[in-house]
Amino acid sequence: MEDKDFVQGKKYVVKLKDKSVMEGVFVSETSIHVFLKLKSGYNAGFEKKNITEYKEVVDRKISRDKKVTKKYDSKKLHKILILHTGGTIASKVDYSTGAVTPRFSPEDLVGMYPELMDLASVESKLVSNIPSDDMNFHHYNMLGKSIVEALKDKKIKGIILTHGTDTLHYTSAALSFALECVPIPIVLVGSQRSSDRPSSDAALNLLSAAYFITNTKSSGVYICMHENMNDEKCVLLKGVNAKKMHSTRRDAFKSINTKPFATIDFNNKKIDYKDEASSTHGNFSFKPFNEKIRVGIIRSRPGLAPEELKPYEKFDGLVLEGTGLGHFPIGFIDKSTEHNKEILSFIKDFADKKVLCMTTQTIRGRVNLSVYSPGRALKEAGVLGHDLDIITETAYVKLAWLLSNYSRNEAKKLYHANLRGEISKRSEVEEYEL
After folding, report:
1. Which residues face 38 on adjacent strands?
2. Residue 244 falls in the annotated catalytic set
3. What is the pLDDT of residues 162-180, one digit of tens each?
4. Where do the domains of the chain lie?
5. Statement: 66-286 belongs to CATH 3.40.50.1170
6. Lowest mean pLDDT among 60-74, 267-281, 334-348
7. Beta bridge partners of 327
8. Using one digit for the tens of pLDDT, what is the confidence trace for 268-288?
9. Which one from 11, 79, 85, 88 is the annotated catalytic residue?
10. Rg (CA), the chain
11. What is the spatial distance between Cα 265 and Cα 211, in angstroms, rounded to a whole number?
12. What CATH code would you report for 11-57?
């Protein structure tokens, strides 16, 4: 094969020495390999020396001409806006180092998945190319403002937000609270494998999100990721109930203490709703985060020392992630536990002046501060969270948002209110599945 540049986003037919023929959209190439995205959604790599012939395929149904995409802005196809923040889904492997780095622009990413143009009129915009670990309240506000601006276009049926998976569920919770009564579906999509890898989960996640948006009447903030390790279905999770449960699996995200909202079978074009949508009645409003608000999370464990709590004295709020039903080391049993008195003293003082909440380290279940004496002591000290099954990440975001928009006393009352479906009405036995 002669050295000739492939064009990203174009479709090619490639013939190999073993007489096999492959067809797909060009993704990337190295000095040795060419990578195509096949119809199945998988990426395939071929050694250039094994390619005998290749030619571009002109797809009459799909055009990648930016001018042509405007023609889809009609009554025939819904309009979807894709907002990009980077993350693995917009990254590829640097084969010289083996590292995954952000490389794809919004236009590149849309071009890699031409099936999107069969579903909707797609526009894309880069908000910020940032690893999700580096995001903070400022970035939540920036995303919120981008969504508010986008909603001025009444033709937009929904928004896909591409995002790194590490803190995807923090952002989904943040937007769930900040965007009150959002009138369209906002779907956060990530991937556990970079988009140029054969094992990437990006294609199914992105296409499933787009299919959901164009075929649902539901609104709200959701996460769309793989349901299991197979490339068959995606699961749609409410933005306030999701947790990343695995560091590498494609089905890393699970719904905690409640059912998934829906499963999406993109290949067979089916949506199976599992739960009711959160209420979105009322007027839409955007209530941003106060970027100066400081909320902390401290995890209980054997050997916790009082001095570990002191740095939080100047914080506005604090989430205690307790053991079991929501316990902390506050008991004075013998001389070796005498320092627990200082921990209880800190808790009482903080709860009196600021806002202090309790969650549990267990993956599922509720906080119950009424069963054991230490729990009752914490409740009497002013610790919030009794009888709630809100997960720690959502509790952190909810508390920060409440303190950003309400007085301390109002925030305390509203913390126990089920504002976005973050608190389930009852715990079901069958929900224990991990």
Report:
1. 24
2. yes
3. 999 999 999 999 999 999 9
4. 11-57, 66-286, 295-415
5. yes
6. 60-74
7. 323
8. 999 999 987 655 568 999 999
9. 88
10. 24
11. 9
12. 2.30.30.100
